[in-house]
Design brief:
CATH architecture of the largest domain: 3-Layer(aba) Sandwich
Strand order of the largest sheet: 2-1-3-4
Number of domains: 3
Helix content: 40-55%
Strand content: 5-15%
Low-confidence stretches: 1-31, 171-176
CATH superfamily of the largest domain: Glutaredoxin
Order of helices and strands: HHEHHEHEEHHH
Length: 271
């Protein structure tokens, strides 16, 4: 007859194994979630017309407009689509949003989309833009970065975030940080966004080759990718911080106050 301590150890082991199997089953089920057609990324065709239609529908139905810029190769983009396709999120989105999902392919330049709503470019995928159709203001301007890690965001945060966002009041121009006129920020933003999209133009073809298993010097590519990742992440955060500070200065009648503009090291191809 086994010793009682051995029985306890065996019981603990079986319990732990059962928990692991249960978690694994949940993960497998999530991985197999079907993506609904409206949350699939579509080609960049007739984009302006489609956005116009999206905004018109959102306005007529008293909903928010949502434009999602993603890529089929990006696990965070796929994760967002799968979570949106769940019963709970699909209902929230159907009731309160009109959505348009666009496929960026391999880092295509779509600044003409983001800049239409006062956002300088995309800093990662997916980029979720939530627009109030009356004012064309970007409701989630300061929180766009959150959903670039969509696959790591707990599902309950999806539900709470998009449930609360639907109740956001339209902002007047005076309330929008994106409308702050500041020569320092404008020059800084333009310069750094040009650098970012030059980097995308270089890395895009390499990324495509890597995804297809056709890239020879992967180590060099991964090094460059990491450098650009760190840059775009910091730049996005710095721009939000600068605009918030400029907005605060404007409210306090200190709009002439000099801002501390960040500096970044040069990329390898800029040397």
């Amino acid at each position: 007859m086994p010793h009682i301590s051995n029985l306890r150890a065996a019981t603990k082991f079986m319990l732990a194994l059962s928990v692991l199997l249960f978690i694994s089953a949940l993960s497998s089920a999530a991985d197999k979630t079907d993506v609904l057609p409206q949350y699939e990324y579509s080609p960049l065709e007739n984009v302006d017309t489609r956005i116009d239609s999206l905004l018109a529908q959102a306005l007529s139905e008293n909903k928010l407009a949502m434009i999602v810029l993603g890529s089929s190769w990006c696990h965070d983009s796929v994760g967002l689509s799968k979570n949106f396709s769940s019963d709970a999120m699909h209902k929230i989105l159907q009731d309160n949003y009109k959505t348009l999902f666009l496929d960026l392919g391999y880092l295509q330049d779509v600044r003409y989309i983001t800049q239409r709503f006062g956002y300088p470019g995309y800093f990662g995928t997916p980029t979720v833009l939530v627009i109030e159709p009356n004012t064309l203001s970007l409701v989630n301007h300061d929180e766009v970065s959150k959903w670039q890690s969509a696959n790591s965001v707990p599902f309950d945060e999806y539900v709470s975030y998009f449930s609360q966002l639907k109740t956001a009041e339209p902002m007047s121009n005076g309330e929008q940080t994106t409308t702050v006129t500041n020569a320092q920020i404008t020059q800084f933003e333009q310069t750094q966004i040009e650098r970012l999209f030059r980097a995308y133009a270089i890395l895009g073809p390499l990324l495509e080759a890597d995804e297809k298993g056709e890239l020879e010097n992967t180590d060099d590519f991964y090094k460059q990718w990491s450098t650009v990742y760190n840059f775009r992440k910091q730049l996005q955060a710095d721009l939000v911080s600068l605009k918030q500070q400029a907005h605060l200065n404007q409210q306090n009648n200190e709009s002439s106050t000099e801002l501390e503009i960040p500096e970044y090291p040069a990329f390898e191809w800029e040397s």
